[in-house]
Amino acid sequence: MRYAPKYIFTLLMAFVSMFPLSAQFSMRNGGSQTGSSSSFTGGGNVMPSGPGRSSGATQVGSLPSSSANASDKEVALRIRSWAIDDVLGMKQQADLDTMSLNFQNMAVPERNDVVAASYLANIGSPFQSMIYKDRQPEESFIFMQPYDHWKTSNSEMRYINTTRPYTNGTYLTTVGNDRSQEENFKFFFTANFNKRLNIGADYEVINSRGYYTNLASRDKIAHFFTNYLGERYQAHGRYSIHRFENYENGGITNDDYITNPLEMSGGYREYESLNIPVNLSNTFNLTKYNDLFFNHKYHIGFHRKDTTGQDTLEVFVPVSSIIHTFQWDNGSKLYDSKTANLSYYDNVAHINRNYTADSVALMTLRNTVGLSLNEGFHPWMKFGLMAYAEHEYRRYGGISDRPLPPDSELDPFRQAHEHHENLLWLGGRLLSTQDSILQFNADARLCMLGERLG
After folding, report:
1. What is the pLDDT of residues 225-247, one digit of tens each?
2. 166-174 and 159-162 strand pairing
3. Burial (CB count within 10 angstroms: exposed 0-12, middle 13-18, buried 19+), residue 253
4. Which of 158, 262, 275, 331 is most buried, taking the most CB atoms under 10 A from its CB?
5. Among 265, 287, 289, CA closest to 276
């Protein structure tokens, strides 16, 4: 496995010089994880955490107007951000993080999200919070569960509306040699074509060599997102690419290398972590997860005059909405070991004595259609009511467990087996978000057809 060399930072600085930017550099020392970080922003003086990590309107800076007739005025850089739920596309508050406080914590696996966690010592490796309530909901593709900390779900995705193009980039690295250094590069860009249509993209690369032999990780994550906010028609969409590649060492061969290193070395020296023998070599797993999400709705309502301000304005009041949500998820996991350790694997000798491999995949396709009676279109309408139906198709793939004939020349690790499922869900939601005294959100759904019937 090859890693991005240190010229990433040089390329980053060359890119920054093309834009009028405000820059920030911070360095922190603490414990065994010493790190440095740099960040640049274009189009303003704010450092939000991006659409995947942090509905409101936030004025985050001001820039001079480019109009010759209004040279004495300033146009505010205003960024609005929000999230939507992945079933009916309801907007949810998602404030921007405009503070650089604790920014250096993004260089460690826990980041600013969890207090305690278990992982394989290096950033980008499989991760699980030790605080149960901080764990993410279960994935339909269970092999993505260890990478939920690095993955951005639909409900975590931030959609943006900005008055000016916005660029944000960060490069974080730990201080160390080529073997122990960890790198994390992020780039984010978003812009509006007009006041209703926004597009954006962000990209993240994580490189980590690991503190033990054969423990390196390399992750690549990309998001492309857009939203359109019309008076009657609204749409949100995103396409995400996740690639998590990890070497596996199967653990150290003997705990005494850590608990009693002098005895294992014959009393001459202590063992460094990279010199401790491990169970596996030339073994890696590759987890890929791509997803496409698109939600759109059409509002049916009426216009009325708003006289609360200084001027009388005609505003559109949505009474009901027709909603459609499309989701496509495609996950796969490949495990490959070129030098099989027969004492480590239980059944490898029954398949191939020289190497072992395994692969599994899940493709999910969902279509949701819903109707809603919107909250607040009339003074007596104190809550919103929604009903929806969802069809879900699942295709499981894996290696067939049927043995091949002894004289077969086929690769036993490439014989695929598929399983198909169709599910039909009916659901409803009752909510109140505008009342000053009582606010609630009750959601229920029931499987009417398929493997999860009832």
Report:
1. 999 999 999 999 999 999 999 98
2. unpaired
3. middle
4. 158
5. 265
